[in-house]
Design a protein that fits this description.
Structural class: mainly alpha
Radius of gyration: 14 Å
Number of helices: 2
Number of strands: 0
Order of helices and strands: HH
Shape: globular
């Protein structure tokens, strides 16, 4: 396996949507995430954002796989489903 940074997007075209999704989740959790440097945040704060993002993406994928359409009443990655 090639040595790859974990900080690069597997699908570069999705970077903007993922960044918006990250900011949305941070807002929902009350984490003061900003564009740029966020070294003032704790590991717990950053981890909660990432963990909740993964949870929401898995839920969206499960809904899609089960045949349920849309994410009515819930926010998601810019209105798109994974």
């Amino acid at each position: 396996m090639a040595n790859r940074s974990s900080n690069t997007a597997a699908v570069p075209e999705a970077k903007g949507a993922l960044d918006r999704f990250k900011m949305e989740v941070a807002g929902e959790l009350g984490v003061p995430l900003t564009d740029g440097y966020n070294g003032n945040l704790t590991s717990r704060q950053n981890g909660s954002v990432g963990g909740y993002m993964v949870k929401k993406m898995i839920e969206a994928q499960e809904r899609q796989m089960s045949g349920q359409n849309g994410m009515s009443g819930q926010s998601g990655m810019g209105g798109s489903q994974m």
